[in-house]
Design goal:
- The structure holds 2 protein chains of 2 kinds.
- By secondary structure, chain A is α+β, with helices and mostly antiparallel strands.
- Helices cover 30% and strands 18% of the residues of chain A.
- Chain A has 12 helices and 14 strands.
- In chain A, the strands form 4 sheets. Chain A has a 5-stranded antiparallel sheet with strand order 1-2-3-6-5, covered by helices on one side. A 4-stranded mixed sheet of chain A has the order 9-10-13-14, with helices on one face.
- In chain A, helix 5 packs across helix 10.
- Chain A is globular and about 70 Å long.
- By secondary structure, chain B is of the alpha+beta class.
- In chain B, 33% of the residues lie in helices and 14% in strands.
- In chain B, the strands form 5 sheets. A 5-stranded mixed sheet of chain B has the order 8-9-10-15-16.
- In chain B, helix 8 links the parallel strand 9 and strand 10.
- In chain B, helix 2 (18-29) runs antiparallel to helix 3 (39-53) and helix 4 runs antiparallel to helix 5.
- The chains are: A alpha+beta, B alpha+beta.
- Chains A and B meet through helix 1, strand 1, strand 4, helix 3 and strand 5 of A and helix 2, helix 3, strand 1, strand 5 and helix 4 of B.
- The structure holds iron/sulfur cluster (SF4) (2 copies).
- One iron/sulfur cluster is lined by residues 262-264, 266-267, 276, 281-288 of chain B.
- Residues 262-264, 266-267, 276, 281-288 of chain B line the site of one iron/sulfur cluster.
Chain lengths: 382, 422
């Protein structure tokens, strides 16, 4: 039996102790029990089942029959404090002030009075924050949840593509699948603006990743001022960078470079941006839940699409085509990888109409991780 | 004419628009009492320029930090600072989120008030690692911002960045999910507070992430997005409520949608009774997901630990490798704390600069990592045994052979052995 009040007291004591120091630091996140609605505190660890009332509205029922309703609204992830304050107003009006965010950046309002659901949904809609993105596993009906993504041109210094702009364009085009649960299985979308992939691009059903296609340019002066030669040389996984100690700079064997950009992260004197050649690769078939098919990495199916701001029609078209081909061909509960493996990758390219090119044949020889026999799942027998 | 014709295109359409968020901030921040310029205006100009040029205009950040902390603030500068002085500095502050991303309106409002005065008013709820992200401020605002966050009734601390223990995150777990096999929120909270020093002072070869998922559905992507994934599981039998199964039989085709899709074929259904050969169940969650009222994880609960998960940078992506098949997950989580500390010590010593622990393990061998953590090798560690015979054997595993002594007498000798003169 979990005593959350006890935990909260322990936290308060811990904070009080830390405050005795000269400088109040290293006190960690506020304890979550500060922020849980009473019905959650009461039923912590005692939830029995859940059901989906309609797209975007979850009902969780506890062993004792108590219920909590979660209303899930889309978010662009980048939020203004003025919008956050409006969310707070809604939370005060309908949820005694309680709200949370999901791992896919949706906002969820936690309601105990069922009659508040529809008024809240209407208020959210009026604000421009539509409700949806849930799935009903029992019924086999799935909506598209928010697309997890990175910073892009809004804040990042290494991106090959923008993030928020592409996500907005894709989600607008696929909006009907967010609002209605009409996909045959879960389909997770992700975008990362470079191969650092501060997002689960490498294990999502359909994902977009920014790639560079040209080697870094060496700004000798910049290298001298800002970079350390040994770490810069070591930063290249393909050993394409050679130090020129006499000149205190480096040179790049352009034949060996595969444009990962790691050198630029280490050394600002080696920018590798090229607006006409940077762009997006499309990957599919990754998943990370252990349900049925093993977790698996995403695979590249389109090597490059140019940057086409403001609405990236090329990227949007390809994503939509893949999604809709899968949705119309897959069996109930069959995720993209399960479908692609059932029909075969040859048929995947045939049915989606995507062109298979030599770029889709692996020639990155640095590591054979993917051939390892280590187990990469929680699926095993005792 | 609009100054942002390209961005204006992204105000259209039904999905919430980040451009609207920035514009709204630019407009409302103007009237607010604040220590900074209307930075959102600068963001609009700068991002519009990027949309036109198809290139980022943010520069590498130098070291910016607050007193006593080495991480948690990402330095960022505009390369257009002369034209757009509002965003000459645009540093980001990562604020350690509460477990499960639960908030009250009171706490959020207090943060908004501080951020209105001391920064751009733009945020991410949340960043990729899980932190609350305060997006963009000037260097001189960082210290007062940190101090004001610390002075709140429920104080907020900053998160991790760089080569350190990154801010951990967890799924909603027992707070609102019937599948949770351990208390993800408390585990996340306790492990975060235990390792504040490692979180706030970068000293590792590279980043190290821990994520806590309550069951193998892994709603926080721990297997792909953390170096150390703690995923709930159970050892005994799946609990079956037969009456509830019968109810589902009226709604769905149990044979086709549940039994036939089980990856091990360990379930059977005769039209009225569902049975599971639990010895063959691999706890994938499929059947439980489909029939949450009827099926539930067993009672003997804990977690499976996977290690090494990461994105492709640099040597390719890794999905976490099975490391500990079962670990009990009860406060104060000493087993996990000890194991993490031991692994860090080893990785710190042997890991190369900017090498994630998965890469170090790959380079030095899983057996080495298991030895360091004191975990015995078991069949669960592999999907299948290795398919090459190039194994390493320790001296004490070898047996004496006379003929080698004979060779040595004739002057043949092993060259290049560790510690031996050439
Ligand atoms: S990982 Fe499992 S326990 Fe956690 S929220 Fe998802 S389904 Fe629930
Ligand atoms: S959890 Fe997965 S493996 Fe186990 S019985 Fe259910 S479907 Fe089969």
């Amino acid at each position: 039996m979990v005593d959350l009040d006890q935990r909260l007291n322990d936290w308060k004591e811990f904070i009080a102790k830390r405050k005795e120091k000269d400088y109040f630091s290293d006190f960690g996140p506020p304890h979550y029990a500060n922020f849980l609605p009473p019905v959650i505190k009461k039923n912590y660890g005692k939830w029995k089942y859940h059901e989906i009332l309609k797209c975007g509205v979850l009902k969780h029922v506890a062993e004792n029959g108590d219920a909590i309703y979660s209303v899930r609204a889309a978010s662009p992830r980048l939020l203004s404090i003025y919008t956050l304050r409006e969310f707070c107003d809604l939370a005060d009006k309908y949820c005694d002030g309680f709200l949370r965010f999901t791992s896919r950046n949706n906002v969820e309002f936690l309601i105990t009075d069922e009659s508040n659901i529809d008024p809240l949904i209407n208020d959210l809609k009026a604000m421009g924050f539509p409700v949806g993105g849930t799935h009903d596993a029992t019924a086999g009906k799935y909506a598209l949840s928010n697309m997890v993504h990175t910073q892009g041109w809004v804040h990042c210094h290494t991106p090959a593509i923008d993030a928020s702009g592409i996500v907005k364009a894709v989600m607008d085009e696929l909006f009907e699948y967010f609002e209605e649960m009409k996909l045959p299985a879960l389909c997770r979308l992700a975008l990362a603006c470079c191969a650092n992939m501060c997002g689960a691009v490498h294990a999502s059903d359909i994902s977009i990743v920014g790639i560079h296609r040209t080697p870094p340019l060496v700004d000798d002066d910049g290298v001298r001022r800002m970079c350390e030669l040994p770490t810069t040389v070591a930063s290249c996984p393909n050993a394409a960078i050679k130090a020129k100690p006499k000149e205190k700079t480096v040179e790049v064997n352009v034949e060996k470079c595969m444009f990962c950009g790691n050198c630029y992260t280490m050394c600002p004197g080696m920018p590798l941006f090229d607006p006409e050649n940077d762009g997006a690769a499309i990957m599919v078939g990754g998943k990370l839940s252990n349900a049925r098919h093993l977790p698996t990495l995403s695979k590249v199916v389109v090597p490059w699409i140019p940057n086409e701001p403001p609405r990236w029609p090329g990227v949007v078209d390809v994503v939509k085509k893949i999604l809709e081909t899968w949705a119309s061909e897959a069996r109930k509960h069959e995720r993209l990888i399960e479908w692609a493996e059932r029909i075969g990758w040859e048929k995947f390219f045939e049915k989606t109409g995507l062109e298979f090119t030599q770029h889709l044949i692996d020639d990155y020889r640095v590591t054979p991780y993917q051939y390892t026999s280590y187990r990469a799942t929680t699926q095993f027998r005792w | 004419m609009s100054e942002t014709p390209l961005l204006d295109e992204l105000e259209k359409g039904p999905f919430p628009s980040f451009v609207k968020e920035i514009k709204k901030t630019a407009e409302l921040h103007e009237k607010a009492e604040k220590e900074v310029p209307v930075m959102a205006k600068g963001v609009l100009k700068q991002v519009e320029t990027s949309f036109r040029d198809k290139i980022t205009h943010w520069k590498h950040g130098g070291i910016v930090a607050v007193r006593g902390y080495g991480g948690g603030v990402i330095g960022r500068y505009s390369d257009l600072a002369e034209e757009i002085p509002e965003v000459a500095h645009f540093h980001t502050v990562r604020v350690n989120q509460p477990s499960g991303w639960f908030y009250t309106s009171k706490a959020l409002r207090e943060i908004c008030d501080i951020w209105e005065r001391r920064g751009s008013g733009l945020t991410n709820f949340h960043g990729s690692t899980g932190d609350m992200v305060l997006l963009g401020t000037f260097t001189e605002q960082l210290q007062p911002l940190r101090d004001e966050l610390a002075e709140l009734d429920t104080p907020f601390d900053i998160g991790g960045s760089g080569g350190d223990f990154r801010t951990p995150s967890c799924c909603v777990g027992p707070a609102r999910c019937e599948f949770a096999c351990y208390d993800t929120l408390e585990a996340c909270y306790q492990i975060t507070t235990e390792f504040q020093n490692e979180l706030h002072r970068p000293m590792f070869p590279y980043k190290f992430k821990i994520k806590f998922a309550g069951c193998p559905n892994d709603c926080v992507a721990s297997i792909a997005r953390s170096d150390f994934a703690v995923i709930g599981t159970w050892k005994d039998d799946i609990k079956i409520d037969s009456a509830a199964v019968k109810e589902y039989a009226g709604q769905i085709d149990i044979q086709a949608e549940v039994v036939d899709l089980c990856p091990t074929g360990c379930m059977s259904w005769d039209g009225s009774t569902l049975s599971i050969d639990n010895a063959n169940c691999v706890r994938c969650m499929h059947c439980i997901n489909k029939m949450p009222k009827a099926l539930a994880p067993g009672d003997e609960r804990g977690a499976t630990i996977l290690i090494g998960g990461k994105a492709p940078m640099l040597e390719g992506a890794i999905l976490g490798w099975l490391f500990v098949p079962f670990m009990e997950m009860e406060p104060p989580y000493d087993e996990i704390k000890d194991m993490v500390a031991e692994l860090w010590e080893w990785w710190d010593e042997y890991g190369k600069f900017r090498e994630r622990i998965g890469e170090t393990i790959w380079r030095l061998g899983m057996s080495e990592a298991l030895r360091v953590a004191g975990v015995d090798a078991v069949p669960q560690h592999v999907q299948e045994p290795r398919n090459n015979p190039f194994m390493y054997f320790a001296k004490d595993e070898l047996v004496h052979s006379d003929i080698v002594k004979e060779f040595e007498k004739r002057g043949l000798k092993l060259k290049g052995e560790a510690g031996e003169e050439d």
